[in-house]
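User: Design a sequence. Structure:
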């Protein structure tokens, strides 16, 4: 959850207390505003840089305690490398790095949005501030005892000095909403499964109503009536009933088709009868990271009053090995009418998605659908924790996701789809089986989901097993639950689908 951070914008001026953070390029050159604020301390920085062999390369840091000529207690100089070529993801990184260099007891800090080429534009200063806010997160409210280095956070004030204060505040308004959505998604993923089970997850989505999001919850009776037997089959082994949550934000023109996002929400995945090994099973509380992303995204779109009609649907279940649990060899009839032979009960996420995706397409007839799921270990083997696997039936949608991924740093890599893989999931007894074996496991999972998507409907499936939880730690994220995907999809909407 976010710490007590007050973040605002101010004028370029040497602060009277706290920590001052400034940036230089790979030649240890400063912007005009930074040089003016440093005054005669600039010479001290130059000497320290030579002594420490600090060259200003990207991500390098030089720290000076009680710098002569300044009133602050600490000066932090961060290298921005070739600062003329900075992209949005680079500015986020610099902001996160700046936040990480504030000592635990720091109450006030000033960060200069200034580079050798001139002060950052308002959009750049806002991205820098977003990086600061993203880094300021820790999920620690279950800790009752703390070590000396785990002291509870104090209230902090961070001022981003910018050339145009008013424009920077305006640009940050959208980023503020993005940060709130990311933090919401992180909180959901980090919660233990005994706290966040399907009914509780569904209850928490009700908070979005305050922002103008219409929230509808389908219970077991409603899903049974709709024929969502694939999803219900996964849920039937748990003491907690499954839920489908429908979230609608109407910020576009009346009657315009919405954009649609669908999330896998397996609040805990034991594997069911095909039970997982004990080692690492505790991580399966994060198997709902796709649903967390969709919920955080809907929060962001509503909070910034996005000019788009959007729907977010999440399928919430627990996959447990109870006495009523689904068995290998069972055959279920999905909402689409297609029958599925259950080969492995641990291939459950695609069953949840099959019904929710079909329901989304038939009810809302969206412009496109993007689903997110911590679906396969195979995608982690293929791509590690750097990229999410992207499968798409539409080149334009895939290209747009790739582009916004490169800009935000939430990277996707397009993987193949092809009829050649279909034979791996053909069944002797039903229309299909729910797993095609180890070879090409992420691909056959996507092929399975594609059977519930009309060919004319633009669709992308994001396998976020390597990025949704326990992912690579970055300068903007030190949380186990990353909140991955909120920024990616918000930018997709903002850049291409808002009126």
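Assistant: Done.
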């Amino acid at each position: 959850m976010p710490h007590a951070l007050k973040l605002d914008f101010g004028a370029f001026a040497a602060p009277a207390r706290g920590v001052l953070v400034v940036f230089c390029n790979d030649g240890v050159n400063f912007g005009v505003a930074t040089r003016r604020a440093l005054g005669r301390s600039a010479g001290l920085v130059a000497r320290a840089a030579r002594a420490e062999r600090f060259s200003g390369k990207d991500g390098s840091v030089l720290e000076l305690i009680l710098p002569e000529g300044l009133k602050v207690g600490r000066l932090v100089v961060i290298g921005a490398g070739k600062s003329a070529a900075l992209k949005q993801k680079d500015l986020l990184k610099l902001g996160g790095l700046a936040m990480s260099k504030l000592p635990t007891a720091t109450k006030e800090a000033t960060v200069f949005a200034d580079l050798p080429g001139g002060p950052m534009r308002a959009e750049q200063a806002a991205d820098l501030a977003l990086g600061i806010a993203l880094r300021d997160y820790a999920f620690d409210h279950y800790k009752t005892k703390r070590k000396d280095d785990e002291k509870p956070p104090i209230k902090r004030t961070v001022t981003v000095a910018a050339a145009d204060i008013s424009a920077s505040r305006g640009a940050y308004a959208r980023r503020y909403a993005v940060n709130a959505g990311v933090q919401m998604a992180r909180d959901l993923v980090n919660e233990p499964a005994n706290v966040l089970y399907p009914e509780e997850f569904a209850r928490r989505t009700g908070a979005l109503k305050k922002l103008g999001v219409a929230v509808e919850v389908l219970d077991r009776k409603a899903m049974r009536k709709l024929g969502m037997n694939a999803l219900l089959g996964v849920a039937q082994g748990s003491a907690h009933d499954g839920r489908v949550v429908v979230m609608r934000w109407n910020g576009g023109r009346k009657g315009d088709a919405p954009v649609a996002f669908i999330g896998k929400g397996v609040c805990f995945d034991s594997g069911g009868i095909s039970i997982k090994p004990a080692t690492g099973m505790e991580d399966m509380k994060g198997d709902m990271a796709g649903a967390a992303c969709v919920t955080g995204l809907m929060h962001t779109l509503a909070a910034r009053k996005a000019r788009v009609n959007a729907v977010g649907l999440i399928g919430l279940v627990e996959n447990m090995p109870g006495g009523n649990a689904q068995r290998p060899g069972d055959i279920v009839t999905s909402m689409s009418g297609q029958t599925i032979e259950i080969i492995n009960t641990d291939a459950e996420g695609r069953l949840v998605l099959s019904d929710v995706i079909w329901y989304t397409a038939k009810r809302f007839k969206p412009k496109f659908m993007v689903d997110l799921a911590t679906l396969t270990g195979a995608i982690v083997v293929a791509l590690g924790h750097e990229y999410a696997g992207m499968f798409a039936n539409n080149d334009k949608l895939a290209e747009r996701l790739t582009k916004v991924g490169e800009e935000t740093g939430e990277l996707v890599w397009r993987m193949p789809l092809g009829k050649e893989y279909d034979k791996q999931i053909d069944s002797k007894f039903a229309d299909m089986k729910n797993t095609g074996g180890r070879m090409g496991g992420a691909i056959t999972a996507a092929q399975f989901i594609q059977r519930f998507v009309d060919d004319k409907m633009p669709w992308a499936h994001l396998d976020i097993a390597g990025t949704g939880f326990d992912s690579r730690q970055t300068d903007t994220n030190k949380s186990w639950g990353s909140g991955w995907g909120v920024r990616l999809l918000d930018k997709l909407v903002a850049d291409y689908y808002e009126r």
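The longest helix spans residues 165-190. The domain at 180-496 is CATH 3.40.630.10 (Aminopeptidase).
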